[in-house]
Design a protein that fits this description.
By secondary structure, this protein is an alpha+beta fold. It has 8 helices and 15 strands. A 4-stranded mixed β-sheet has the order 10-11-15-14. It has a 3-stranded mixed β-sheet with strand order 1-9-8. β12 and β13 form a beta hairpin. α2 runs antiparallel to α3. The longest helix has 15 residues. It is flat and about 110 Å long. It starts with a helix and ends with a helix.
């Protein structure tokens, strides 16, 4: 009786190679004989289906002729078992990459991942600090407080009583790692992993700290003062080393990353070191080139006038009235660009109208 390999893997006949591979991995994990609830027959069936459907030529033959195509399924009729017991294997070498993924996952589940566990450095912390555009202009000193893991004062961050000291780990005899041999369905495997008793250090405390339970850190508060330089931009990050979460048992602390956010301003908008603003003035002020007064971001009052022949559709550039340029030598500033908005009189007297008509004849 022909087997429906697509049905065994739970995929459609038009399934892609990636879909077939994904279904195979899932079922191979599920039915592996060495796992609780595993099923050797199902596992064999899943592998048989995958060997056919993962090979383009075999899949094409199977789709055309069914299970009895030339070359069979790759497992024959000799039975199926471990290495060296007479079972016939016909596995494509490319498939070993998929099998290695299964082995790795299986070993991780059984605690055989081969990765030595060591005590961890503290995590980094991110904080957001909002400031005004005026503060960004002149620079500001700030202080923030935050809760995080800090070094345990009772044991000075060691995780154990310092006077009692450490002793050699009996499980690994001071090596920090152990070798485990395991018989699996695919043969015997030897794996070296971090010692679960001393976590790879080779030593264990005589008396673990009761306050921090041996971690060397407890939940607490930090207070950090820092300076924001003049000209800082929105989204700029300030790194303060060693002010993040404390590490385990005296390992290094993480870092603190402060993201500077600048609040929107009622008058100015910003692009890099340049500022942009709007100013409303009368037509007469513009035509006569009268002085127009404003305050820049520093609060300093200045004046400007509209040059003759200036196109009011353009922005009027006031040099050196923008933000400080970070990293620049000396007192270097960006520019201020002013968009002019013309205010027209609501009505004209006959005298004013005559003056404008005379002006029109001169232009």
């Amino acid at each position: 009786m022909n087997k429906d390999y697509y049905n065994i893997l739970g995929v459609s006949r038009g399934a892609s190679e990636e879909e077939i591979k994904k279904a195979y991995r899932k079922l191979a994990h599920q039915y592996h004989p060495d796992k609780g609830g595993g099923d050797e027959n199902k596992f064999k069936e899943v592998n048989e289906a995958y060997q056919v459907l993962s090979n383009k030529e075999k899949r094409a033959q199977y789709d055309r002729f069914g299970q009895t195509f030339n070359g069979s399924s790759g497992f024959g009729t000799e039975g199926w078992g471990g290495f060296g017991d007479g079972a016939r294997w016909n596995i494509n070498p490319e498939d070993f990459a998929d099998l290695s993924d299964i082995f790795e996952s299986m070993f991780d589940q059984f605690g055989m991942g081969g990765r030595r566990r060591t005590y961890k450095r503290g995590s980094d912390i991110e904080s957001i600090k909002e400031i005004t555009l005026e503060e960004a202009f002149r620079g500001v000193k700030e202080t923030i407080q935050y809760r995080t893991a800090v070094s345990c004062k009772a044991c000075e961050g060691l995780g154990y009583e310092k006077k009692a000291g450490l002793k050699e780990c009996k499980m690994c005899t001071g090596r920090g790692e152990i070798r485990e041999n395991r018989k699996t369905f695919f043969g015997n495997f030897s794996q070296i992993r971090s010692c679960p008793e001393c976590h790879g250090r080779g030593q264990i405390p005589e008396k673990p700290c009761k306050t921090c339970k041996g971690l060397g850190k407890v939940l607490g508060e930090r207070e950090v003062s820092f300076e924001i330089a003049p000209g800082v931009e929105d989204g700029q990050i300030i790194k303060i080393s060693g002010k993040g979460e404390a590490g385990e048992q005296g390992t290094g602390s993480g870092d603190l990353y402060i993201v500077v956010r600048i609040k929107p301003h009622t008058t100015f908008t910003r692009t890099k070191a340049d500022l942009f603003a709007e100013k409303t003035l009368s037509v007469i002020e513009a035509l006569l080139g009268k002085k127009i007064y404003m305050e820049d971001i520093s609060g300093e009052r200045f004046s400007f006038s509209v040059p003759q022949g200036f196109d009011v559709k353009e922005k009027l550039k006031i040099q050196g009235r923008g933000m400080p340029k970070m990293g620049a030598f000396g007192l270097s500033r960006g520019d201020l660009y002013i968009s002019l908005r013309m205010k027209f009189p609501s009505s004209l007297s006959s005298k004013a109208k005559k003056i404008l008509e005379d002006l029109d004849r001169e232009v």
